[in-house]
Amino acid sequence: MTFVIDTHIFLWLIFDPDKISKEKITILEDPTNKILIASISFFEISLKYNLKKLDLHGIIPENLPDIAKKMDILPANIDSKIMASFYKLEKIDKHNDPFDRLLIWYCICKGYTLISQDRKFRKYKKLGLISI
User: Fold this and answer.
1) Distance from CA of residue 29 to its chain's centroid?
2) Percentage of residues in the chain having pLDDT higher than 70
């Protein structure tokens, strides 16, 4: 199966894996699963790092793609057709976070399962999001 990890799941895997449920860790460690991180997550991390809203404990954002690769987490570039059709994603409960919403739309369009702790994502199930 193919899974996309939310930005915070990636950061927790690096810095605080105990925050991730055993169910999710089992999925992430299963070698038969394909684990992706969207390129937009690296942008989100870089932006928050630049704004001093995120401490990477001595790591710089440029190192994160290599760290993901070492963890067998594959990069996923969101193609232009998905980006151009993003306007179709209905807003639910004034959820305006563009990073979250793009991950949601990407997973809906591709039929991938999104791994996140964010409870707001559950509300998108009615639009076709598969999340755990």
Assistant:
1) 16
2) 100
